[in-house]
Structures are given as C-alpha cells and as structure tokens.
Predict the structure.
Amino acid sequence: MEWIFNPWPWYVGGPLIALVLFLLLFFGKSFGMSSNLRTLCTICGAGKNTDFFKFDWKTQQWNLLVAGGAIIGGWIASNYLTIDPSVLIHEDTIAKLNQLNIKSAGTAYLPEELFGMDHFLEPKIFASLALGGLLVGFGARYAGGCTSGHAISGLSNLQLVSLYAVIGFFVGGLLMNHFLLPFIL
Amino acid sequence: MFKSEAASWFRIYEMFQFKSFHMYGIIGSALAIGVVMIQLIKRYQLKSAYGEPIVIPDKAKSFYRYSIGGTIFGLGWGLSGACPGPIFTLLGAGFLPIMVVLVFAVAGTWVYGLLMDKLPH
C-alpha cells in the first residue's frame, strides 16, 4: 500500500490520462479542459456583447463536472494520499532554481516563492501569476485547445494542426523557461 | 494529476530544462495509448455508451492560429507552471493563490473572444 502514498511514476499517470480520454469518448464527449474557461466566461455574462460566448452553457455542464472532478481529485490526493508532497526534481534543476532564488525547490509541491500565502500578493509575484493566467487563457482559446485538447486528444487522433499547436506550446515554454523566467524571478 | 506530479510547477520547469523523462513519459504514454485507442475505435466503429457511433471531429485546418496561439499558451504554461486541467487540481489541493491564475485565464479567454475577429486564424 505504500506506493499509493509515494509520487506515482509516469507509467501510472500517463495511462490514467488515457483512461480519462477513453471514458469521455465512450460517453460521447471529448477531452479538453480549456473549454471550461470559455464556459466560465459565458456564465459570467460574456455572451451579452460577444457572439463567441453566446451559447447555452448548460450543454457544457458535463465538462464543468470533469473540472469539478479534478478539484475533488486534487483534494483527495493531497489530503489523504500524500505524506510528503515534496517534488524530487533533478539536482541540477534544484541548483539552477536556487540561483534564481527559488529556495523551496526539492522541498515543496509548488514554489513557496510564487504560490506561498505570504508571497503571492507581492506586486511582482501577483503580476507574474496574472500574466501567466492571461497567456494560458488567451493562447489556449486562440489555439483551439490546451495540453489535453491538442497534446492528448488531437495528437491521439493524428491531427497535424495539433502538432503545430504542441510545437507552439514548447516554443513558448522554452522561451519563457530559458530566456524570460531568469528576469522575472 | 496531483499524484503523478504533472500539476507541479517544478515538474513543468524541469521538463523545459530537459532534465527528467518524467513529464515526457506521462504525455508520451498517454499519447501512445490514445493513438492505438482511437485507431481501434475507428477501425471497429465502436459505439458509445448511448449506442451511437463515436465520432471524433477533425480540427479546423489552419497554421497561424495553432502556431501563434500555441506559442502564447506555452509562454503562460512556462510561467505559471499550470495548464488548465492542473489549475483545477491545484485548487482542490488547497493552493488558493492558483485562483489568481484561474481568474486571469478566464479573463484571457474573454479577451480572445473580444479580439478574435481581428486576429489571423
């Protein structure tokens, strides 16, 4: 039983994601988390002046349920299935993050310096989280999907355009990681 | 997502540093199973739980929207360390500051909706 409390290896996590894809297809749906962001816009009233958000959000309730499931899953996993949430990343990566003043690398699940309750309201940190969110939301909709919609669903269905999107994800991610983050952190 | 650490900012950072196989293993194994699964669904024309054929619509053809949109998404992914699925997972795990990312991701989607007619697709 101890394995369940330790971090799960990739060959457990990956197939579980494939299982989610299968279950959603089997029930006549599709796997795409960022569509929920559009639904949330509509619920907040974005349909009043923009056609893109004019649709009956109740048709998307099933997907909100998937997001709700992710919330419940995160709650169960962190509260009942985890003893030590530290993420043991590669020691070179820890050393690099320490240089960037992320001292919590290797001892926490998320960087304390960004997501800690004492830190996230600092103007620079708050602005970084907000900018990250804006880019994720804007980019996912512009690209017509996020990691689940393109990297998993789209590539599984051998969609060439999803490959363009995933290459974009990595071009953007590498630019941020190697050239921009050192200035932001 | 939580237990496999795919929702951890550190794992995303490490992935873009090419220092661990972990994230590539997760995405790669999900994808390998997914490809075989969808080929089997198509070949045997499997039916859904409601008895209807499973139809997976092709995505609209375009180059600009996927590459430009994808790159913008990647910049956000690299910064916040969270894509839309894990944002919900982290919320459930009790990391309240992720609400900032969620609220602004909704705002970003809204901005796209307002500007979409003016963007190259």
In short: Chain A has a mean pLDDT of 96. The two ends of chain A are 39 Å apart (CA to CA). Chain A touches chain B through 115 residues (CB under 8 Å).
